[in-house]
Amino acid sequence: MKRVFILAFLFFFTFLNANALEELKNVGIAKYAVIEAKSDYSPIREAPDVHSKRFSHIRQGFVLYADKQNEDFYRVDLGLDKPYWIEKKYSDVQAIIPEKRIVEIDEIEFDEDKYGYEIFIPANIQNAYSFKEIPEGLLFSLYDVKVSDNLKIKDKRGAFNLIPSDKNILKIKYISPALFGYDVLPHKKGLVVRIKKIPKINRKKPLKGIKIAVDPGHGGIEDGVCANQLVEKDVNLKMSKQIKKALKKRGAKVYMTRKKDKYISLHKRVEFANKKEADILLSIHQNSLPDPKDVIYKHGAGTYYYHMQARPLAQNIQKEILNFSKFRDDGVNYASFALARPTSPVSVLVECGYLIDKNEAQKLNDKKFQKGFSQALAKGVENYLRYIVVY
Length: 391
Fold this sequence. Notes:
Elements: H1 2-24, E1 32-37, E2 42-45, E3 54-58, E4 63-69, E5 73-76, E6 84-87, E7 91-97, E8 103-112, E9 116-122, E10 129-134, E11 137-143, E12 145-154, E13 160-163, E14 169-175, E15 182-187, E16 190-196, E17 211-216, E18 226-227, E19 230-231, H2 232-249, E20 253-256, H3 266-275, E21 280-287, E22 301-305, H4 311-325, E23 329-334, E24 346-354, H5 358-364, H6 367-389
Parallel strand pairs: 8-12, 17-20, 17-21, 21-24, 22-23
Antiparallel strand pairs: 1-4, 1-7, 2-3, 2-6, 4-5, 5-6, 8-9, 9-16, 10-11, 11-14, 13-14, 15-16, 18-19, 22-24
């Protein structure tokens, strides 16, 4: 009997969901589909294209309101001057409603411990949000909410400012000249914004106690670059093991996303770093080009960041690995890589060199070179920590 009931419920839910999708095809601004993100860091984009700029990322279970759809995307209304988009593979339709459910915020609680600041926002719906790094610090925005005229602020610490808005947006500014990681965490009664403090740095041993996740790129069924009789996943792992040794020797606590030739999804790698509460995430790769002939003009070591908080880390690493390797400077580059996008660890991706370049490939496969390169990278992380502590 229980099995029959479950099957009947599943049939009803599927039927309801199908009807919701059918109704959404011709829906106007007077009707919305309630969209729920079904994986952490689901991307909200500025256009219905997988290559378009990312506006924000939201956690699993957080809610958006869609007013139109095409084959692959839902168009979502954040109450701003333009629509945004989320891929259907990242979202589920929960219901069709006549208008958006605007959540009233009548209380905000600020808290602090030795590791960071927390902002607790009670809400019966976990709505879409965004972060924006600004010169003064960090701007957090929560959409589809109304701030109560009788808003109660508990235990305000002075590091935050509420920014007035004439739209249904709650804006909170965190004031700091430097950032060291931030995120949103779901809460059974709302959501929590967590902003890490810069840890106390021992200037003689800056890495002492710092938690670092080292990610050897690719693995298992993902070989990466194959050139000059080398396979990238193998070189990444060898280099990462040397990096782990160099960082640990300087006092860091180091966690490897993989320790052997094993496939791990990008999502799981980020999840691993977050579970370990890493302060820094380093993703290690080797580079290539679509046309090997172009290696005459483009080769060398490069470092990549996505969020501005990670740029100083990328710059300091790049300087030291170039000083050691004498490779061509392939730049400190902005790029939307999955392992450079996490915000809770300060995250960068390092392309140690080009395996399609014979000279670089030979060096990158040499254990002595790998050891020296890893020590240089660790020195770059130390310099970053000394730099950030000034702020």
